[in-house]
Design a protein that fits this description.
By secondary structure, the chain is α/β, with parallel strands linked by helices. 28% of the residues lie in helices and 24% in strands. It contains seven helices and ten strands.
Length: 232
């Protein structure tokens, strides 16, 4: 079995197109770990494209802001809240499936005696259902990670890539494929047979078109977003 997985596209439609083109029909399963929307200029195009495919579409915090409201995240305030109101309106009625008991926040798979878990980030089952990213700054992450039963765990949310091995289990933080500061993007390829092979597939995308989209569109908190998340 071959699985393609990526995360945190964040409205970068040009990066998403490049990823899906490379994936083509060469994979048995495609998984998005969430945060399809927000930050970038084309949340609608990204959401519609993925919802029209057979992609396993897990929800990230930015996607949940569109179903549960941005106020579930107490860290957001001011222009950040205005930005997410704009994102929700820009989706033109597109909605994400957000079932009870957080069933759309993770995907578990067992194949060839290997267990895999996929999620946007580690789940705490509160109204804002993800652990805070601060756990990665010290040893708190070890206890959170080690609660997972799967041999291989893939997560996004943190835009920087990360890898940990704890008690024989492998944790891949795959970063953001959409929040890039150049024309490079990527996805992760998982090949499962008797052994498991994980590799990063690097790509380039149409950065010029993306930058033009950023210039053409106006939305709340844009100046901060384009500098911090896209290097503009």
């Amino acid at each position: 079995m071959k699985i393609a997985v990526f995360s945190d596209i964040h409205g970068n439609y040009q990066a998403l197109k490049a990823i899906l083109k490379k994936i083509g029909n060469d994979y048995d399963m495609v998984i998005s770990l969430g945060d399809v929307v927000g930050l970038g200029p084309d949340s609608y195009e990204c959401a519609k494209t993925l919802l029209d495919t057979n992609t396993v579409l897990l929800l990230g915090n930015h996607d949940l802001y569109c179903t549960r409201g941005a106020k579930i995240d107490s860290d957001l305030q001011g222009d950040e809240l205005k930005h997410h109101d704009w994102v929700e309106k820009s989706l033109n009625g597109i909605t994400f499936t957000d079932r009870k008991n957080n069933k759309d926040l993770r995907y578990d798979l067992e194949y060839k005696n290997h267990k895999f878990s996929f999620m946007h980030f580690f789940i705490n089952n509160e109204e804002y259902p993800f652990e805070h990213l601060d756990i990665l700054k010290d040893d708190r992450y070890i206890n959170v990670f080690d609660k997972e039963k799967s041999e291989y765990v893939f997560y996004g949310h943190n835009h920087e890539e990360d890898y940990h091995e704890i008690n024989g289990k492998h944790y891949y933080g795959i970063g953001s494929s959409g929040c890039t500061k150049d024309n490079k993007t990527y996805f992760y390829s998982i090949y499962i047979n008797d052994k498991v092979t994980v590799k990063k597939v690097k790509l380039t995308y149409d950065r010029k078109t993306f930058e033009n989209r950023m210039k053409d569109i106006k939305y709340p908190d844009k100046k901060v977003i384009e500098k911090i998340f896209f290097g503009l």
